[in-house]
Design a protein that fits this description.
The chain has about 400 residues and is an alpha+beta fold. The chain folds into 4 domains: about 5-60; about 60-85 and about 325-400, conserved putative lor/sdh protein from methanococcus maripaludis s2 fold (Beta Barrel); about 90-100 and about 245-325, Beta Barrel (Elongation Factor Tu (Ef-tu), domain 3), CATH 2.40.30.170; about 105-245, RNA polymerase II/Efflux pump adaptor protein, barrel-sandwich hybrid domain (OB fold (Dihydrolipoamide Acetyltransferase, E2P)). The chain has 6 helices and 23 strands. It has helices at about 5-25, 25-60, 70-75, 135-170, 175-200, 385-400; strands at about 65, 80, 80-100, 105, 110-115, 125, 130-135, 205-210, 210-215, 220-225, 235, 240-245, 250-255, 270-275, 280-290, 300-305, 315-335, 340, 345-350, 355-360, 360-365, 370-375, 380. Helix 1 (about 5-25) runs antiparallel to helix 2 (about 25-60) and helix 2 (about 25-60) packs antiparallel against helix 6. It is elongated and about 125 Å long.
């Protein structure tokens, strides 16, 4: 009720009281005065209630009044919603594994006893670095066999040269020369055989001298498993060390048959690890042609460069395989989307602040979200810092509810 109307009403009632007092006296005057005061009080309460209802309605509409200084202080950044290409993808849970092409099982080539171990578990080693020394009777036997074969060859070669000269000089028979040549050839074969027995120790195993041989690193890597201790008896079935080059790792994940047509070799894959807050892009390097008996999925592999060693084998990751791309008419960053009253909402910039606008979402990819309904291209919305506006809107709604 308007305050002027209240004054007129009070004046009218006072006039009526004055006229009535002539007939009824002082008691009637007091009754009418009290009634006028009550009418005025009810009118004031009605006006205050109407104002409160107006403020509550404004809060429900999602309007927030903020100056430019307040927006800057709150760290709110504005972006313009617009058309954008959205890369669609299929998400899969994956795991970081050793690159099996750069993982070696270093094993003893002959039985023996471990004399010393020079590396520890988890240690980085260089190609050719000493890992362990093993003593073996078999090594001693092979060296003796090689030495004997070398001496027999020397003797056979000397005999052959002498018999050749005698035969050419017509002093000895040809049969003696042929026997000497055959003996020389047999000695050469015996030496080659002995040398081949020793050569099996090449590569990651190096023979030193006597009855000892060394295990050495075949390439730069990390000792990921170690199963040797000094004094331990080992044979060719013992798994002494496992070395892996962690500068490159694999990410593997399973794909069901219905999605195999969308996952092909060469497709881009975004690998992310929430625990590390890290993300990297690779390509599908291998798609298995067989389905696992337990999982009934095909194994897909992505090769990742890992120069800093951050992607550790055993880490669970998310793999998003790019399958297609589409042109979204309106798209905004994911940071612009907040949930208000269980609805996806963006905060649209207005002349005096922001307005909460419910929207419908479409595809998501690369940190962008497609808006299919509720927002037009070219409109400015809050991106980074939009959660501050959601918090302020919640406070305003709580205050109005009281």
């Amino acid at each position: 009720m308007n305050k002027k109307l209240i004054v007129v009403a009070v004046a009218t009632l006072a006039l009526g009281i004055g006229i009535g007092s002539i007939r009824t006296g002082n008691s009637s005057i007091e009754a009418h005065a009290n009634e006028a005061a009550e009418h005025a009080e009810h009118a004031e309460h009605a006006e205050n209630g109407a104002a409160a209802e107006g403020e509550h309605a404004a809060g429900e509409e999602g309007h927030l009044t903020l100056s430019n200084e307040q927006i800057t202080a709150a760290g709110i950044q504005l972006i313009e919603a617009g058309a954008q290409s959205i890369n669609l993808g299929l998400p899969f849970p994956g795991e970081v594994r050793f690159d099996e092409d750069r993982t070696a099982h270093v094993v003893p080539r002959v039985p023996g006893v471990v004399e010393s171990v020079s590396v520890n578990l988890g240690q980085s080693v260089k190609k050719g670095q000493l890992l362990a020394v093993i003593s073996s009777q078999q090594i001693s036997d092979q060296r003796s066999e090689q030495a004997a074969a070398q001496r027999r060859l020397t003797l056979a070669r000397t005999t052959y040269e002498r018999e050749k000269q005698l035969w050419e000089s017509k002093i000895s028979a040809e049969q003696d020369f042929l026997q000497a040549r055959q003996a020389l050839q047999e000695a050469e074969i015996a030496l080659n055989n002995a040398q081949q027995k020793i050569s099996v120790l090449s590569g990651s195993v190096v023979a030193t001298g006597g009855n000892r041989y060394e295990l050495r690193a075949p390439f730069d890597g990390v000792v990921v498993e170690k199963h040797l201790t000094p004094g331990e008896v080992v044979d060719v079935t013992s798994n002494a060390f496992i070395l892996s080059d962690l500068s490159r790792v694999w990410v593997t994940f399973g794909v069901s048959p219905k999605d195999l047509t969308k996952v092909q070799v060469g497709k881009p894959v975004t690998i992310s690890a929430p625990e590390l807050n890290a993300e990297v892009v690779g390509n599908v390097a291998y798609v298995g042609s067989l389905l696992g008996e337990q999982t009934r999925t095909a194994t897909v592999r992505v090769t990742l460069e890992n120069p800093q060693g951050a992607w550790r084998p055993g880490l669970f990751v998310n793999a998003l395989v790019a399958t297609d791309s589409r042109e979204a008419r309106v798209a905004v960053p994911e940071t612009a989307i907040q949930t208000v009253e269980d609805k996806p909402t963006v905060f649209v910039r207005t002349d005096d602040g922001f307005k909460a606008q419910a929207v419908e979402l479409g595809s998501r990819a690369d940190g962008q979200v497609e808006i299919t309904k509720g927002l037009e291209s070219g409109v400015q919305v809050a991106a980074a810092g939009s959660y501050v506006l959601k918090s302020e809107l919640g406070k305003a709604s709580a205050e109005h509810s009281h």
